[in-house]
Amino acid sequence: MTRPMFDRRSVVAGLLLSTALGSIPALAQAPAPYQVTPELIEAAKKEGTVTFYTATDVAVSEKVGSAFEAKYPGIKVKVERSGSERVFQRLSQEYGSSIHNADVVETSDAVHFVLFKRNGWLAQAVPAEVAKDWPKEAKDADGYYAAYRAHLSVIGYNSKQVRAEDAPKSHADLLDPKWRGRIVKAHPGYSGTVMTGTDVLSRALGWEFFEKLGKQRIMQVQSSTEPPKKLAQGERSIEADGNEYNMFMLKESGVPVEIVYATEGTPIAIGHGGIMKNAPHPNAAKLFYSFLFDQETQQLNSDSGGLRSFHPRVKEKETRTPLSKIKLLYSDPVKLEPNIEMIKKKYEEYFGT
Amino acid sequence: MTAITGIVSGVPIRRVAIDWSRPIFVLLTVVLSVLVVLPLGWLGYYAVTDQSGSLSLANFRALVSDATLRRPFIVAITMALSVGLLSCAIATPLAWIVARTDMPARTLVRGLVMASFVTPPFLGAIAWEILAAPNSGIINAVYRWLFDLDPYEYLVDIYTLSGLVFAIACYTFPYVFTLVTNALERVPTELEEASAILGGGLWTTLRKVTVPLVLPAMLAGSLIAVLQALTMFGSPAILALPANFHVITTKIWSLFQYPPKPGLAAAAALPLLLVTILLLWTQRRILGRRGYTTVGGKSGSARITVLGRWKWLALGFTFLVLSLTVLMPYAALVKTALTRTVAEPLTFESFTLHHIWFVFFEFSATQLALRNTFLLGFLTATIGTAIALVVAYLVTRGSSRGAPLLGYLATAPVAIPGIVLGVGLFLSYSSPILPLYGTLWILLIAFLTIEMPAGYQQLSSAFKSVHVELEEAGRILGATRMTTLRTITAPLLRSNVVAAWCFVFIGTIRELSATILLTTADTKLVSVIIYDLNESGDLGAISVLGIMLLMVSFAVVFLANRLPLLGGVRVAPVRG
Prior knowledge:
The complex is a heterodimer. By secondary structure, chain A is α/β, with parallel strands linked by helices. Helices cover 41% and strands 15% of the residues of chain A. In chain A, helix 3 links the parallel strand 1 and strand 2. The longest helix of chain A has 16 residues. By secondary structure, chain B is mostly helical. Chain B has one domain: MetI-like fold, CATH 1.10.3720. At the A-B interface, helix 1, helix 3, strand 2, helix 4 and strand 8 of A face helix 24 of B.
């Protein structure tokens, strides 16, 4: 009688808990890089579709999908966009019940790829471009995933409501009583970017920073794409965190928002991509995955998405501050993973949710 | 004459005809048990076991000892009761005005209340963000402009507990309104006339006759409003989280974030179930054994009060309610759909069709989601209403000893927050034996379960108001229970059946909380893509989708009410 229940329990452990319990694939060398060959294109066309689970802003990922469809007519891209944690939750649920919808997956939370790899859900694949040009830190040593994009989590303000000289210059400035009731902030339980940011900032500034920030009557939103949009609306004047790329896009379309690179440093979130081992369209997946790292795609991400790229030949718009001029705070996903529970608990204690 | 032959010929017929109510009863018990007990069973199992599957009360200990788990309960109950009170306070006078006075434009008012009912609460909450966010909200912008105030001064803040109560009540008051209007139309004239003859004025008659007679409807409606609020996920997720507090559903939802704690979530859902049972029990106690059968074989049409000068007060009140619940939110959505960013006023420069273009031509999920949503809405409404009709009949007419059990089974899902039911269903139907996850079937099952209480409540209160004498006449004439139901009771209740169908249809297409855990790439629904767009702050696209959802829902409700087959010809008050 208990047998099926135990089976169910383990299924659920796989899908909802999806954690350290998963099997650890034997460490392997990265496979030889692959090229896009006419045979691969032909095989991909036979499959006809590729399903892309992504956490990149919906307008940008739809553009990437259309660009692929234009380059390889006959292959349809199904873009499934949600917040990073929702993508992760959905994929975990689906794999737990042996539904293999996703071909290629991409989220902004590097921890996910540590877990995906540990669970043995990813296929090894290294596009030629990645093998040649990507820095060692921006790809998996075993070839399971690579950094599709990176973005910063920045402080920002609405320049119609706040003058540049009054704007905060650092995280410490956010604690000024004059910003009480005027700050918007995203949530680490929901946003991988903010989880990464909370991790590095609590190390750099101590938890007292968040305890004090929690008393500023902040407006709490979920996704890190949201604070910039609340600034644009004029609903709040300052964002404590939020995606740099959303700020770029708003600013470049004429919305009065400005980015602040805090003196203490700015958290960087690396968004990996990978091919699922059980991809229903393995060839289309390989073709699409390689396409994601092409110079043109990466340039598109930078131009219309404001994302940072590891491709050395991508040219950023001149109005954007290059990464080399920003003090960056890196988080280690392997070290972050066991602390997630504690970070959420502390956060709820200080902020209420 | 015909009646006499009926009786004569009825005797032999009755011996031959099989009473199907028994096998149907058994079948329904099985169906409802599968729908309700299976997911609840898994939840219960998860609540009392630990990671390894052995018995443990750790989840309940955490529930009692952890303040971050206790607080959301208190907040949620406060919120739900306030919603119930507010809904009743808005809806009852409005229902009386519409059903029993000569105020002009009553049909229009009914239509607009229907509009607020059709509006998904999460869409209403988003519209109210656009209207009443403290800084960017249109109302506050106008307020500052009118009184020449500094930036950051505001009149209303939707991101508060009272704001949340208001935003929910805007879309739950129609439950009370519909039930009370129906009841008011059925109050027998004789009783009110008797009161008038005995010297009772309008006020006395209202207080001593009319209100007591519609009390069951008021209570039933408020109860639905309370339970809706208690188990609602969308509006609190949109309005409470920015205000830094949790209600129980958002808390349960947060327990599924990484690393997820399904056991704790299941345990947190059980007190909700208890609260609901307590509410239902209280309702029964209040109503007690008093009889409230109002539609009998003999009653006249409802008395209409002539308002005279009071007409303006009635019109003013009605306009205020409808502005807050329908007119202003809709205007805000239309404005947002047509302007580049939310902050700009709608002018020639800011006018854009970009959002509409994006939704229909760039956003790849739209078409599939629309098709799925309306297919599921139609199927759920049709199957759900049929089941609810038979269940309500068997229960209210006490056909057999186990009948009340059916009633409890049909009402139980009301206590389960959609998000928890979503998990229960997911656990039940993702196994290799019943691999329904990833198909539309699991959503159909989810919606049937979720909407069963609404359909059942509607129809059982309708049954209670139809006097059993009409059916008895049929039974005496030799018809079986099912034949009486088909040929006498159901036609009498035709407008109720259509109403229940619409209830279920609308409930389905706006469902979000269970859906959010059960959809996959191929089974996407409009409510989910709206939620996904909200998390990335795309208010323009949301407005376009929302308006479209509303228009189609309206069309369906309108058609359902017009088709003669479905009771479009209003059944005239039944006379002897």
